[in-house]
Amino acid sequence: MAMGVVLLGYGAIGRAVHRSLAEHQEDVEVLRIVDRAVLEGGAQNAATALGDAIAGAQLVIECASPAAVRSYGPGIIGSGSHLLVASLGALVDPQLAQCLLHDGPGRCYLSTGAIGGLDLIRATAATIEQITLCTRKAPLALLHPGLPEHLRSLLAGLRPEHGPEQVLSGSVADAIKLFPSNINVAAALGLAAGNMALVRVQIIADPTARRTTHSINVQTSSGKYSFEISNLPDPANPATSALTARSMVSGVLRLAGRGPHFI
Ligand SMILES: NC(=O)c1ccc[n+]([C@@H]2O[C@H](COP(=O)([O-])OP(=O)(O)OC[C@H]3O[C@@H](n4cnc5c(N)ncnc54)[C@H](O)[C@@H]3O)[C@@H](O)[C@H]2O)c1
Q: What are the tens digits of pLDDT across the range 47-87?
């Protein structure tokens, strides 16, 4: 029998996941698509609206926002449905992470999203000394309304002749404050390592970049690992890599029992 899923969030990732899952109807049935209008627009109270939205779902596929994970994640897990999270930045909050990852009865799965190599980082977590992440993106993919004015005008005015500009060097917490929508990869690394404090983040705005590149270096007491992941942006949202939706579909199919399984 196909696994019943609900899509929470129907933007760039949600639409791409929906399109791909249509090719796997024998394994996965999309029961409902839930966006803001469904959860916030009705006359019902929030808990009833969420209960109706996820009724019968074995898995809720979150591709909405960190705020949606905060608002609905605990209720989804508490209802016994499983949750696959794209907006990993939400789990930088240790209380929310504790609730989602440990409370149950539903299970919380974390999407590998825009990168790979998290299995290796998880496996070596006890020996990790430091992880560095350098993300290089087109300036427009970094712009958002909450940026301080000086950074907003710097990003909006960057032209190819100006060359790349470092716009952040710091901790995951520093990155969340300035670039909350670009923190998923840093959060994924911290969650895999079991300690956000091990991750140092650098963000470079590169006006010549056509791809988003994540250069990841992992220093452990037993080895050194480097990954470079260079993704084309999703045409529907330049801040999101096209790989993210594919990673989510791959994860959903794996949860539906489709192999091969690398563990
Ligand atoms: N894990 C990763 O590597 C990775 C990579 C890229 C994006 N993401 C995250 O995935 C999420 C979705 O990305 P996207 O590019 O599809 O974004 P998007 O802006 O294109 O779409 C988001 C959709 O979710 C809906 N939404 C937002 N908040 C909601 C809420 N509280 N309740 C209900 N619906 C809500 C919006 O209305 C919109 O339709 C973002 O949080 C993004 O940061 C994760």
A: 888 999 999 999 999 999 999 999 999 999 999 999 999 99
Q: Which two tokens stand for residue 255?
A: 């949860």
Give the pLDDT confidence of 171-214 residue by residue, as tens digits. Answer: 999 999 999 888 999 999 999 999 999 999 999 999 999 999 99
Q: DSSP letters along 167-204, please?
A: EEEEEHHHHHHH-GGG-HHHHHHHHHHT-GGGEEEEEE
The residue to mutate among 10, 35, 65, having the most atoms of ligand 1 within 8 angstroms of its beta carbon, is 65
State residue 214 phi and psi, 5-degree precision.
-110, 115
Query: At 262, is the secondary structure helix, strand, or coil?
Result: coil
In three-state secondary structure terms, 236 is coil
- Largest distance between two CA atoms of the chain: 57
CATH for the stretch 118-231: 3.30.360.10
The owner of tokens 């100006």 is 162
CATH H-level, domain 3-110+244-255: superfamily: NAD(P)-binding Rossmann-like Domain (3.40.50.720)
Cβ of 63 less than 6 Å from ligand 1: yes
What is the rounded CA–CA span in Å between residue 125 and residue 62?
26
Question: Which residues are catalytically annotated?
Answer: 214
Asked if residue 29 lies in contact with residue 56, where contact means CB atoms within 8 angstroms, the answer is: no
For the chain, the domains span 3-110+244-255, 118-231
Per DSSP, what are the bridge partners of residue 214? 135, 229
Classify 215 as helix, strand or coil: strand
**Angle made by CA atoms 165, 238, 164, in degrees to the nearest 5:** 10
